[in-house]
Amino acid sequence: MKSMFWGLFFIAIGVLFLVNYVFGIHLPVFRILFALFLIYLGVSFLFGSFGMKFSSGSHSTENKAIFSKSEFDFKVSSGPGMESPGGGVKAGENVAEEVGEDDPRYFQTVFGNSKLDLSGRQDLKGQKLRLTTVFGHTRILVKKGTPLWVDSTTVFGSTRLPGENFNAFGEFKYRSPGLTDKSEALSLQTEVVFGELHVKEVD
After folding, report:
1. Within 10 A of 195 (CB to CB), how many other CB atoms are there?
2. Contact indicator for 135, 157 with CB cutoff of 8 Å
3. Residue 17 has what DSSP assignment?
4. pLDDT value at residue 199
């Protein structure tokens, strides 16, 4: 990310000086550059707070869309404690504590566009997924009636959930109607920064 930022930073310097001296449009060059630098620091801190690491350039995999577009693929977890029924997640458990950065259940979208289609799956009860979207757009499709628990954090973004629930800033918890803390469900931990994430129920 550093190399990308400094490349764009020096390009911005050249463009601003060109606008100033060639076209005669006087802009506060140093104030603009200082603002860009502050934005870079802020984004870096946000990435760090979510434990994100990535290299410059486009990157697209089954669970990453970085400067790219990707259709994510979720493979059911079957490790210890993940069996369903009986060993899966209960509504309200903290997904982020178990699903780390290198876990295949962790999906990242950074300056990209992604879709995770779970609408055809019948094996989602007790599964845990974590999704982070930064300056991007993520769509998650689930079959209507799927027991769902969503723990969302949004910073200057948009998190749209079933039942016309919406979150633009802060933390928000959603659970399917009738779901209790002892119910097994598909549990999603979502983190959105200057982006958009939409969990949509489909027939």
Report:
1. 23
2. no
3. H
4. 94
Structure tokens at 173: 């918890």
The answer to whether 199 touches 188, Cβ cutoff 8 Å, is: yes
Which pLDDT score is estimated for 107? 93
In whole angstroms, give the CA distance from residue 77 to residue 104: 9
For residue 178, pLDDT over 70 is answered with yes
Distance in angstroms between the alpha carbons of the first and the last residue of the chain: 40
The helix, strand and coil proportions of the chain, stated in percent and rounded to the nearest 5, come to 20, 35, 45
Domain assignments of the chain as residue spans, ordered by start: 2-49, 59-202
pLDDT at 113 over 70: yes
CB atoms within 10 A of CB 134: 23
User: What is the band of 124 on the pLDDT scale with cuts at 50, 70, 90?
Assistant: confident
Residue with tokens 């919406």: 166
Q: Which structure tokens are listed for 106?
A: 């962790």
